[in-house]
Prior knowledge:
The chain is mainly alpha-helical. The protein has one domain (2-286). It has twelve helices and no strands.
Amino acid sequence: MWLLAAAGSAFFAGLTSILAKCGIKNTDSDIATAIRTGVVLVFSWIMVFIVGSAETIGEISARSFIFLVLSGLATGASWICYFKALSVGDVNKVVPIDKSSTILTVLLAIIFFGETEGLFVKLICTAVLGIGILLMVEKKDYSGENRRGWMMYAVLSAVFAAATSILAKIGIDGVESNLGTALRTVVVLVMAWMVVFMKEKQDKIKSVDKRELVFICLSGLATGASWLCYYYAIQNGIVSIVVPIDKLSIIFAVAFSYFVFGEKLNKKSFLGLLLMMAATVVMAITG
């Protein structure tokens, strides 16, 4: 069941990237992140009450609560960097770098959780993933901030995403996965709006295009669905297997970016995508 949940997470995560890109063409990325997070929060708490886990909040240990908060902070930082990168770079360039968090996550899972079964295969596949990512990152002529910033933000997004997975695995131990997701989202929401007010961007909320607002909200719903699947899989499965499967969202992201934005892959990038897919599938099968 956790394998299906991981696959569902990949699908909705891929959809999130495209919907978010549609929603931040003219909308400030920090504003978009804050609005999206609000949608995710409502969605996640609805699921908590549907499954009836709200009454178990008092049973959460201090240790789990602290790590859930830390994972929420890491998620917030990852989101802020990711959607900033998306706002200035191509989807099919930003997403592969963001997905490089898989490499760091697998290594951390081996160290912290002792997930050493099939260690040789995992390390080989992780190396192949790295090669695939390098092949997909194509140098492109950007100007000004776009040229200097999108890759840095994408790399930071990957680092924080890796930290999120490890911290969440620790924090969600003994906590119903929907409830854990909802609590984390509260932290992300607070962090997202703090960034908006610290940068004094709150006045831009009134000028958000209505069409883009729809896409931002839809991306929030897709994110909520992805998170619910992902943290169920993280809680019940093997981190070093769940994370690579989740990162198969790159397939959907690249496919949608081609049809929606006309962002094509060259031969080198396509080979990189195939390597990433192959490594992920092998890790899932052998895990």
